[in-house]
Amino acid sequence: MSVGMAAPRAPYACDPDRSRGRLVAEPPSQTRSPFRRDCDRVIHSTAFRRLKYKTQVFVFHEGDHYRTRLTHSLEVAQIARALARQLGLDEDLTETLALAHDLGHPPFGHAGERALDACLADFGGFDHNAQTLRVVAALEHRYPEFDGLNLTWESLEGIVKHNGPLTDRSGAPVGRYREHGIPIGIADFINIYDLELWSFASLEAQVAAIADDIAYDAHDIDDGLRAGLFHLEDLKVMPLTAEIIAETSAHYPDLEDVRRGAELVRELISHLIGAVFAEAQNNLAAAKPQSAQDVRQQSRPLVSFPAAVAEEEAAIKAFLYQHMYRHERVMRVMGEAEQILFDLFAKYLKSPDELPPEWLVGADGDNEGDRARRIGNFIAGMTDRFALTEHQRLFDSTPDLR
To answer: Staple partner for 92: which of 36, 68, 339, 376, CB 3.0–4.6 Å?
Structure first.
């Protein structure tokens, strides 16, 4: 089958008709599958709309053409659906996970996450994955019979485990959770609804996770070029991007740099999608899973980059880390952004009445940890724009973040 053609539903795809259901039972939709309903709920959520003014790399007011968390999420969904279609997976579940994966990100990108993690260090820290679960399980208040979005088990599993198992079979944390344990938001939730943290997630979740890598590798190159943090010539230090640039120059010798950059990004995405599709086919042929549950029982992910392409992709990440994320301009703005969140957290902790009235409902019985987490949830939901406005309201001086 050629890349781009839709495959019939594979036996290892998640089947909406066999979903494990929702924490709060609801009558089925007459017009939508359970996974399509999940996706629609994510799109209509308040948290999804807020992604429009949340930083990807550049703060929203630095330019209209840079990615925000919203445009990034849409681009992840587009790549993820393309892969899901080729592999015969459930596109609705895949799209749900792609669109939901950053709902828990605070303002100002990873700088905001670092700041909130430091502020909440004595109370379990901050993890954007756990925060996404909080958003969809509790913090959205849109429905009369439950808090959150009441997503299916498969969607919740994919949100929590798209990067792999969090524990081993005995429950001991693994990977990046080994040092600090399972984030509090996830640890509390699985006591109510077991997401089987020891197993891999569905192929739909694995596709959404790798689509995230593909999207931000390619599009951060695009934004970095637009911002002038580096130039096309700089990207020739990596064999993969050098090869694409050379091929473009051979085909279009007189092409201006803006179009050469766009062609690089487009060809890079195609190369990475094709490599993942081929590797997934090989892995599936070797593992022969006959159900989504067979996928969960595997000892490794079945959706991955081939070894050689994984090295190429790691080189891109290393380049972006050095030339973009650690660039003096970006570092200065993000340092100021972190301080804004430190200031806000300290202010709300000292003067809780500065929180909006709806955020004080039920706060009378809060202990120190409850109060800190309440404030953390409020700040995590802020857009860049609202965080700046709040800081201007509460403090005499607010950095411009440019």
So the answer is: 36
Residue of 208, 207, 227 lying closest to 324 (CA atoms):
227
pLDDT tens-digit profile, the chain (402 residues): 555 566 789 999 999 999 999 999 999 999 999 999 999 999 999 999 999 998 877 665 566 778 889 999 999 999 999 999 999 999 999 999 999 999 999 999 889 999 999 999 999 999 999 999 999 999 999 999 999 999 999 999 999 999 999 999 999 999 999 999 999 999 999 999 999 999 999 999 999 999 999 999 999 999 999 989 999 999 999 999 999 999 999 999 999 999 999 999 999 999 999 999 999 999 999 999 999 999 999 999 999 999 999 999 999 999 999 998 888 988 998 999 999 999 999 999 999 999 999 999 999 989 999 999 999 999 999 999 999 999 999 999 998 887
Which positions ≥6 away from 310 have C-beta within 8 Å?
304
At 212 the three-state DSSP class reads helix
Nearest to 399 by CA among 336, 317, 308: 336
